[in-house]
Amino acid sequence: MSPPWNYDQLKIDYKKGVLIAGEAWRMLDAGESLESVNGYLEGNLKAIDSFAETWEVVPERAKKFLAKSIMRSSFLQKVKHFYKTKLLGEITTYSVGRVLKRTEITDEQERKPIITSNTSKREWKLEDYEADSFFSYEDLENFFEDSSIPQEVRNVIEQAIANDILFCGFNGINNLPTTGLDTLNSLFKGWLQKARENDAANKLLNDAEADPTKHIPMRIINEGVTGSGSIFVGESRIRSIPAGNVVDVGGGVVGFPFPDHGFYEGANLVFEGTTNYDGNHLILDTSTADQIQITAAYTAETIEAGSATITHNPDYNNIDALAVDLKNGIEKHLRKDLVVIYSDEMHGDEEETLFETYGGTPTEKLAISKALNQIGRLPSENPDYFPEKTMVVTNLQNLAVYHYKKEMRKSWKEAENKKGYISWILGKLTFEILDYDQFSMAENILPLSNK
Q1: What is the DSSP string of 236-283?
Q2: φ/ψ (deg, to 5) at 102
Q3: Who contacts 295 (Cβ-Cβ below 8 Å, separation ≥6)?
Q4: How many other CB atoms are there within 10 angstroms of residue 33's CB atom?
Q5: pLDDT by residue (tens digit) across 374-420?
Q6: Can you list the positions of beta strands (E) in 151-267?
Q7: How do strand 133-136 and strand 420-433 relate by DSSP bridges?
Q8: Are 334 and 317 in contact (CB under 8 A)?
Q9: What is the distance between the alpha carbons of residues 293 and 290, in angstroms, rounded to a whole number?
Q10: Rounded to whole angstroms, how far apart are CA atoms 152 and 143?
Q11: Sign of CA dihedral 419, 425, 426, 431
């Protein structure tokens, strides 16, 4: 198929050609028809090979393209975006202390100001990315049919960029020199990963500080009972231990036959009614679907039917209680406009139960929908690509994306040897949490059991 306008008829110097091409993009962005744009180009351009080869867009237009990509994600629209002219810089945060006092002025005593804030600084650095796409002649003809091909192509690319930026913001764990589509989580360190690293650094400082009053608050919780490796949410459950013999697994581990028990690794169980194993025990990761294994000295014992029970007490009765705990980990003066960000599976069971039980009328359904839009009496967000078993409480404007506006480039080039067109895009960005004191997160959230 032919390009969106005919470069082969261009006869004009390169500099002027770029200006005219930029105007053509503006016309398309404004919604003018392809025929109108072609007419403009045919009336202004004469062919030269160098201009026909590539069409590069100036940074300001590329920035507008990026802004349109961001608008394709409802969540990205709500976070903070900065367009920088430098590749690195500093984020400065202030924590305000107390200031009110009174001074009795004497010859020996004078009024002195108090340092009311602690300043912390950390560096941000922009990392590059490529967003290159190939469109074959056949794909363009079959997919876009008779529509405006340049606009439809841009729509597809804009949506793909928005999806990938959001994915990296939540799931990015590294910034490797080379990545592929299967290692997108290694392109950038996202918000959650930077929170993890900040918490790990603070833990090292706390471990080195003997005075607990000087410890830095931890912003991430990833287990309830120490050693469990998970945060368990749900109503307390009591289950009878099936009849059978306690098994000596070896190495200080014993097993209780329990077909299809459904408990997760790390669950903190209370055993009652046994002769030798009453008390709290964590389920080991060596447990099987039909055997619960715990750490204990083995003593032979036969469990009689109905004689012993296992109780699994939750760390939180529901996700609302967890959200409130995360909110309370943020100082009161920083709690303005907080929201809860959560993953789908955390609300799914509760939503299904509520609609089945109470959703009989349109009014009831509306009331349930409104209730589900809040968690822990805070507004909630359920964005795409947010990792499972995770909850964050923060102000959305505390999450930032820094973009480099100076050298972002995009171009649309025909590749005859590949029988299609290539959209080349090059940019730089980084994800930042502006104030870690206004960010709180829980990971490894599980229901009490899957049965």
Answers
A1: -EEEEPPSEE-EE-SSSEEEEE-TT--BPTT-EEEEES-SS--EEEEP
A2: -140, 145
A3: 252, 253, 281, 282, 284
A4: 12
A5: 889 999 999 999 999 999 999 999 999 999 877 677 777 777 788 88
A6: 220-221, 231-233, 237-240, 244-245, 247-248, 253-257
A7: antiparallel
A8: no
A9: 10
A10: 9
A11: negative
Place of tokens 């964050």: 392
Question: What pLDDT, in 10s, does the model give residues 172-190?
Answer: 999 998 888 788 999 999 9
DSSP symbol at 189: B
Distance CA 254, CA 248 (A): 5
The residue type of 415 is A
Amino acid present at 245: N
Nearest to 383 by CA among 120, 75, 35: 75
Indicate whether 46 pLDDT > 60.
no
Give all domains of the chain, ordered by start, each with its CATH number.
Answer: 1-55 (no CATH), 191-223+319-396+436-446 (no CATH), 236-312 (2.40.30.20)
Contact yes or no for 448/267 (Cβ under 8 A): yes
Residue written as token pair 């005859």: 416
Q: Let me know: does 251 contact 245? Beta carbons within 8 Å.
A: no
